[in-house]
Model the fold of this input.
Amino acid sequence: MNQVKMLKNRRGMTGLETAIILVAFVITAAAFAFVVLNMGFLTAEKAQSVISSGMSEAASAMLTDSGMIAQFSNVTGDQADICLTKLTFYLKLSQGHEPIDVDDNVMVATYTSQRGHGEIYSTNGTIMTISGVNSDGDSLLETGEKFKVEIDFTELPLAGMDPVQANHIEKYAHPYEEFRIELRPSAGAVLTIERQVPAVYSTIMTIE
Done:
């Protein structure tokens, strides 16, 4: 008798309650899936933008062709008196990369050493000049072409120097000193050239 009474008191789950719980689970899962998908789309879009920007920056790459030819003055004196007066090197384009405009209105070049920092490529053309060797006559550095770069240190103005230093050998690079030249095109990677002036024994030497 008691067992029959206990069975009568048991209450089962109706179909409506089951449906409500199921719908709640579906709605919750749908909302969660929407958030996950939305975040995934945003992440994918951001990644695509970053990749596109990175490809654009890496699509152009300049390289120096072989070593740098350096000219020195006061070679017969002490090493401390020897000055780097002129630097010549050649540029080429990496295989499979987009052409680079090396015109002075587009590209920026700077020189940095322990003695100062300054821009060396401008319309006056007295400090740094870039000229085509086997180019087609324009200012675009293209595959298979080479451009000759010449830097005249005697015309080099450096920030932070007083007028006396600016007209003296103190502004030049000397043996065992390091210097850095950066070529910044309008698009593409920056070409950074870092060298140390070796012990000088000749008026013209190659700096590797």
In short: DSSP finds three helices and twelve strands in the chain.
